[in-house]
């Protein structure tokens, strides 16, 4: 059976008859400022990119196209809960992989994430109060999960499936997702230019695996919201590891 064509709005469809090329180009255009902001220490500013990702389905897709990428009511709501729990478990699993390979050193991927917000005694001040921790973690459970899932597991996966089918599109989208996350760990700006940490390659592979997990939860729920909740659980688990296992 031929995969369905991603339902772009007429203006965009006229400009880009091959939707996968348009979406791949858009992914690169989104990645450039993301790398620039994170590598230059402006981590909080990438929220603007995530919010823009929220809007992309409404800017580019018809109503049918939004349904096509999974902006619909879940057909198996119980998988919203399972997805959330699998996300938490996945984040803890990634912590232990990093710890077993590198300890809590700069090569651990969560150390890089921690360094983006750990100023002064913020972790020590927040850690004793679980409510404060949840409030601190809440933005990480909202902005990137919605933005990245709408774009990667939603628009990109459907656009690539139009060209290559579901299996290859899942792998291609996961590759984009993994490489994009080099902005958060693996690629470092130094006084002598940019360099890759030894842990960059396993980090990309692990993020590709996370992407495939998110795609699977989307399939199980029949909705992009399953992937959003799984991603939110992953980010919560990652923050818990940073606050309570790394320190």
Task: Write a structural description.
The structure is a single chain. The chain has 247 residues and is mainly alpha-helical. The protein is 70% helix and 3% strand. The chain is globular and about 50 Å long.
Summarize the structure.
With 247 residues, the chain is mainly alpha-helical. Helix content is 70%, strand content 3%.
How far the N terminus sits from the C terminus, by CA atoms, comes to: 52 Å
Number of strands: 2
Largest sheet: 2 strands, antiparallel
Helix content: over 70%
Number of helices: 12
How do the strands of the widest beta sheet line up side by side?
A: 1-2
Structural class assignment? mainly alpha
**Mean pLDDT, all residues:** 94
Series of H and E elements: HHHHHHHHHHEEHH
Strand content: under 5%
Low-confidence stretches: none
Q: How much is the radius of gyration in Å?
A: 18 Å
Describe the protein's topology.
Layout: H1 10-15, H2 19-39, H3 46-60, H4 63-68, H5 78-102, H6 109-115, H7 122-126, H8 130-137, H9 143-164, H10 166-180, E1 187-190, E2 193-196, H11 200-221, H12 224-244
Antiparallel strand pairs: 1-2
């Amino acid at each position: 059976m031929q995969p369905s064509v991603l339902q772009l709005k007429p203006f965009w469809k006229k400009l880009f008859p091959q939707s996968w090329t348009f979406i791949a180009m858009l992914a690169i255009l989104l990645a450039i400022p993301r790398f620039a902001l994170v590598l230059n220490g402006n981590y909080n500013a990438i929220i603007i990119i995530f919010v823009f990702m929220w809007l992309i389905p409404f800017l580019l897709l018809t109503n049918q196209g939004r349904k096509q990428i999974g902006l619909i009511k879940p057909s198996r709501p119980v998988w919203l809960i399972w997805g959330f729990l699998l996300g938490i478990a996945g984040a803890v699993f990634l912590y232990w992989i990093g710890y077993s390979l590198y300890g809590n050193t700069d090569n651990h991927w969560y150390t890089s994430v921690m360094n983006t917000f750990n100023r002064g005694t913020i972790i020590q001040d927040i850690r004793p109060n679980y409510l404060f921790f949840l409030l601190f973690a809440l933005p990480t459970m909202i902005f990137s999960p919605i933005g990245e899932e709408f774009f990667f597991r939603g628009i990109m996966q459907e656009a690539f499936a139009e060209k290559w089918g579901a299996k290859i599109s899942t792998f291609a989208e996961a590759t984009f997702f993994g490489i994009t996350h080099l902005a958060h760990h693996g690629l470092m700006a130094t006084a002598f230019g940019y360099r890759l940490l030894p842990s960059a390659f396993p980090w990309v592979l692990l993020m590709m695996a996370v992407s495939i997990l998110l795609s699977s939860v989307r399939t199980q729920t029949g909705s992009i919201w399953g992937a959003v909740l799984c991603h939110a659980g992953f980010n919560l688990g990652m923050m818990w590891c940073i606050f309570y296992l790394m320190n």
